[in-house]
Every structure is written in structure tokens, then in C-alpha cells.
Amino acid sequence: MPQELSEISVMIVESNAAMRTQLRNMLALGGITTVNLAVTAGVAIRKLREINFDIILCEYHLGEGQDGQHLLEDLRHHHLIPLWTIFIMITGESSYERVVSAVELAPNDYVLKPFSSEKLLDRLSRALTKRDAFMPTYKLVEAGNLLDAIEFCRRGEQEHPAFLIDFLRLRAELHLSAGQTDDAQQIYAQVLDSKAVPWAKLGLAKTLFLQKRLEEAQTGFSALIEENANYMDAYDWLARTREAMGELEGAQQTLQDAIKVSPHTTRRLRRLGEVSNELGDHETAIKTMSEVVRKGKYSDFRDPEDHVSLVKAQLGAGDATAASATLRDMERSMEGLAKTPLCKALSTAMVATQQGDLGTAAAALDDAIKHNDPRLGATLALKKDLARICIENKRDDQAAEVIMDVMRNAADDEAVERIKNMLVELGRPELGEQLANRVKDEVKDLMAQGAQLAQRGDFDGSVRQMMQAVAKMPGNINVLFNASLSLLKHIENLGWNPRFAADARSYIERVRKQDPGNERLKAITAYFHGLLKKHGVKPNEF
After folding, report:
1. What confidence category does residue 105 fall into, taking pLDDT thresholds of 50, 70 and 90?
2. Chain center to CA of 417
3. For residue range 249-284, what is the model confidence (pLDDT) as tens digits?
4. What is the mean pLDDT of the chain?
5. Where in this chain does the record put each Response regulatory domain (predicted)?
């Protein structure tokens, strides 16, 4: 083994007691004694919030609902396991090879039943050997040092030819994260020249999406689905592409097709419900969101906004009685969550407005406005619903405050246009234009003032100005980008400041998360890492 087995920690996720015991005994034969057990996906998630393990051995079938693949996707999606944790699937299905070939978030390995202890330990040995080769790169990625991680991938491609394809795949993903879409595109094309690898085809289509070449991206994702109807990630990206193209009906159909193949993924069901609500397809939205609410009650990722979406669909179908029942269910099952008071108040206002109970609606709206705290992380959709119900109750001033907040934090001009279209539907087009212009002027003035201060050499003043802008507009891409630039200019001109460097990195990561195709990411990432090298600072040192 590449590492002392006595140092290896393992979590076994298995609902069958006899199999848990068998796996534990097999590990003990190899000298692995640090073993933790989880009987359900939920138990595993709760333990993994607190402890990292070297290896997770997970049964594919975990009972009704979530299977091992869905657990893995949740763990990766919510960043509950580090890159260096090895996830190995255990399954009795020989068809799993087809499943794993059709997922972007694949396990490190899988073992088919029945198997001996020698076979299991051999697979663990190989996985640990591979991890050792990737560990320096993983540490750089975890520290946020993408550019050096890319260089370590290049080195790995030369030093570990057995893992060439894996290093190429990781390097392509890192190029995308760093805003270097052209470099990622070259890697995917290079891989496809030698072999028709599904993940490379997906990656190539993703680069087209990030470059706003939506028609070409749509063609790429559609071709992948035609080749393999089980390629779930291609469905998700195709739906996202069609939404970006304004083709909501096409996005809805794509999501419905995906759910026929894989019916248990809550994220996908939720998106189908949201799109169906936008389209006014209340029947589909009710069916889908009812399932999301049912699945979410006992989930570690439950969200009271799902109840709001279901209430909205039920009211759209004219069923206030069902909406009231959903509201009561929210109060019971979502008690104690930070967003619940806001979601409860908004849902109450929506139900009362439809029933003509204006007094109750007014009181609920007061409550909703009081609880509309930006720290809650409420979605754009929820805030739009809050603005809508304010307008329906002739509270234009409060609606304007909510809409201004939404527009200030809109990722791009397209998001602002969608909000303006909502106001057109509500008969208030002039309000949308007026508020959009006010926000545009606000952002322009704040950034101009920050830039002017920096040009005059007042780097402290520039940072103060941009920090105020971030506090006011924490989700605005332009503000985040210019705030990080202001912090980096301060470091360049006045010397190393670990707090400013940490803030700059945080803002760059926010931009990367919200707008991974932003053409300015490449330059500011290079600027940031250039300053680190200039001052001899490693990313994990601040």
C-alpha cells in the first residue's frame, strides 16, 4: 500500500448490517482499523459535515429514494468532502459501468459484488496510489491557488503517464475555473482527437456555453444525449442552455426527459418546478414541487422556499385550500430554519391576497419585509415573488425597495431584463425602467468614485469606497470584480495585507461561482497570483 494502513480512515455507508460487518472485517485484514459506519445517506452527510475521511465505501442501493450515486452528487455539490477523499461505490449491478460512464461526478472507483478482501484491498491500494500522485495538486486547489495547480497538473501529466487522462481532465476543469476557456477547449479537443470520451464532449460543450455560443452548446449537449440517454449532466446543461436562450418550454421538456431517466435528484426536480411555475404550467409545478417537498422534509438540504414554490403553483391553479395546507405543513416541518419566517410570511400574504383577506395580507407583508434580510440567502425567485405580491397589494414603495435590492445583485443585464419583464406583466413597465436606470447609475457612480480615488493615489480611500459598495450590492458581479481589483491595487502599491488578500480572493470566487464565463476572470486571477509570488506568500498562509 502507498500509505500506512493504520493511518487510513474509512467511512462505510451501508444499510445492511451483515454487509457492514463483512466490509469492516475485510478492512481489518488489511490493517485498516479506523472505520466509521453510516446506515443511511442522511447519517453519512451529518458525519461528513464534521469529519473528513480518506476513503468512503458506499453501497449503491441505500433503500428507497436516494442511492449511492445521488449521495455522491450531494456531497460534491455541497462541497462536504475534499478533493482528496476517495469515494468507492459497491454494487451488485454489472450495469453500473453504464451508469458511471454517464455522470460528471463519478466515484473514484467501483467494486462489483461478490468480491474478496484481496480484491477490495487491491482497489484501495490503487486508489491511494493515484491519490498520492494528485495530492500536491489537490492541496493547491483547496488553497485556492488555481494557476499553480494548473502547472502541477502539467507536471503530473509528464511524471505520471498512467494518469495522463485524469490530469488532463482536472487541468481542463481548473482552466474553466480560472476563466481560461480557450485553454480548456484545447484540452477537450486534444482528448477527443484520440478517443471519443463523453466527459470531454461535455466539457467542450460547456466551454461553448461559457463563451455565450449557445446554439453550438445546445447542439453539443443534444448530441451527447442522443449517444447516451443516461448522460444526466448533459440534460442539466442542455436545460440551462435553453433557459439562457429564452426557450423555457424546451428547458422544461429537457428536465422532464431527464427525470424519466433519473427520478430522484431533488435539484433537478426543483428546477423543473421553478420552470413550470414560470411557464404557468401549474399542474406540472404542483406535481413536481409536491415531490420535492416530500423528499425535503427529512433531508439535510431541505429549504422552505420549496413550500413557497408549491403554494405559488397551487394558487395559480386556483386551489387556495391546498395552498393553506402546504403553508401549515411548512410551519411544522421547516420550523427552526433561518428562512422559514420569511417564507411563511410571504406564503401567508400570497394566500390571503388570493382569498381577498387584505388585512391578513397586509400584516403578513409587513412581516415578510421585516424578515427580508440579505444574509438569509433568499433566491432571486423568492424576492421577485415578494415584489409581485407587494405590487398586487398596492405597496409600490416596498416593491421598489425589494426590486432595487434584486437589481443591485443581479448577475447580468439579462437578469435585470427578466425583472423588468415581470413588471411589464404586472402593468408597471415604467417602474422597471426607472428602477433599472437608478441601479445602473448607482453602480456606475460607486465604481467611478473608487477608480478616481485609486488614480489619485488614495488607495485606502478606494478600498473603503468599494467595501461600502460590496456591503450594499454583495451579489453584483461588476461591484465584486472592481472591489477585488481595488484591494489588489492596494497590495501592489502599499504592500502585503493578508486581510485584503483574503477579501480579494473571496470576491473573485464569488464572481467565478456566479459567472464562470466572465472574460475578466483570467486576467484578475493572474494578477492575484502574481502578487502572491511577488510577496513570497502561499495561498494557504492568509
Report:
1. low
2. 23
3. 999 999 999 999 888 788 899 999 999 999 999 999
4. 89
5. 9-128
pLDDT tens digits for range 188-235: 999 999 887 888 999 999 999 998 899 999 999 999 999 988 888 899
Query: Cα(110)–Cα(432) distance, rounded to whole angstroms?
Result: 53
Nearest in space to 141 (alpha carbons), one of 167, 121, 159: 167
CA 81 to centroid of chain Cα atoms:
14
Which grid coordinates belong to 238? 442542455
- Contact between 290 and 326 (Cβ < 8 Å): no
In the prediction, which pLDDT does 192 show? 93
| 147 vs 140: CA distance, rounded Å | 9
Q: Where would I find the H helices in 94-231?
A: 96-100, 117-142, 146-159, 164-177, 181-194, 198-210, 214-227
Contact 334, 298 (CB under 8 A): no
Show the beta-strand stretches assigned E in 39-124.
55-59, 86-91, 109-112
Buried b (16+ CB within 10 A) or exposed e, 241-270: bbbeeebbebbbbbbbebbeebeebbebbb
Interhelix angle 340-355/380-392, nearest 10 degrees? 30
Q: 225-257 pLDDT, tens per residue?
A: 999 888 888 999 999 999 999 899 999 999 999
Instruction: Say how far apart CA 55 and CA 64 lie, in whole Å.
Output: 24
- Judged against a pLDDT cut of 80, whether residue 63 lies above it is answered with no
Is the confidence at residue 101, as pLDDT, over 60? no
- Bridge partners of residue 56, in order along the sequence: 11, 87
